[in-house]
Amino acid sequence: MKRLIALIVLALGVFGTSHAAIDTFEFPNDSQRQRFQDLTSVLRCPKCQNQNIAESSSPIAHDLRGEIHRMLGEGRNDQKIIDFMVARYGDFVLYDPPLSARTVLLWLGPAALLLVGGAVVASIVARRRRSIPAASNALSDAERHSLAGLLRNADPSIEQEP
Amino acid sequence: MRRLLLVLPLALFLFIAVLLYRGLFLDPARLPSALIGKPFPAFALPALDDPSRMLTREDIKGRPALVNIWATWCPSCRQEHPVLTDLADAGVVIYGVNYKDDRGAAQRWLRNLHNPYKLNIEDAAGALGLDLGVYGAPETFFIDAQGIIRGKYVGIIDQRVWREELAPIYDKLLRKAAP
Q1: Rounded Cα distance, A113 and B54, in Å
Q2: Same domain, A77 and A135
Q3: pLDDT tens-digit map of A13-36
Q4: How many domains does chain A have?
Q5: Which position among A84, A119, B2, B15 has the lowest Cβ density within 10 Å, counted as fewest Cβ atoms?
Q6: pTM: predicted TM-score of the whole model, two decimal places
């Protein structure tokens, strides 16, 4: 029984291993293999929300890997291949979408919020600095006198400075 | 001025809250097609019912139409099929792209389930699907009489989707085609 359980657990290990896509593509040289790996990792799988083409095991990602491999074989450069994908699937396939009217909020929004926050902090600091010098922490003569009186009453042993 | 500054954080919060609230109901799986406004991609593929006949882009021009990407391996397509049949009976022109499918199975499907398609393009390798930016069947494109893509719907067309979202697009194309 123990053995059976062990066997099942081991078998689960085999079937549960990563679903990372495995294709067998042949490349004439290492630089083309490298470009294939780079391209498939910067392009997003259209069917899956957050996986690149290299990692996804969906059929469409498989097709697109094949297509990229074919275009690399034809000698197309990286930009051409990326343009090919964008023409069909839109900016969605790019993990690094270009700055356009639709993505301007995405690109500049955080910086704009930071600027607004900075301006608010700066204005608060400036206002405080203006208002604080008036209320300086130096005591007036009358205040010093009454403080000395208070201290004397509280504890007669305290020596007072002249 | 000071009062204005006081309500500014609240206004900013409300603005962002509205944006995020809207975001809750957006479907991130629905991508806008990159092909809207562009001509239907050129192709030369066999007809499903008669593999000796080659179909091209010219064959689907002339009238506003739906181009439906389907396959027998796609359960959602089966769910969608009766709706397409109803639409075809009502006079909507529908072309089919049989996407990465088995010819025999596809022909059987049309025989057994009724054929709503005016023409069926057999895209066994998925090449046309790739040019159309298809990422999962069923997908449906709207083309006008000149063969320009005017709209795209990803997912199952049911009666409600047709009535509320797609019929207006199709009617608009019809009106434009018949001045």
Answers
A1: 57
A2: no
A3: 555 444 455 667 888 889 899 999
A4: 2
A5: B2
A6: 0.72
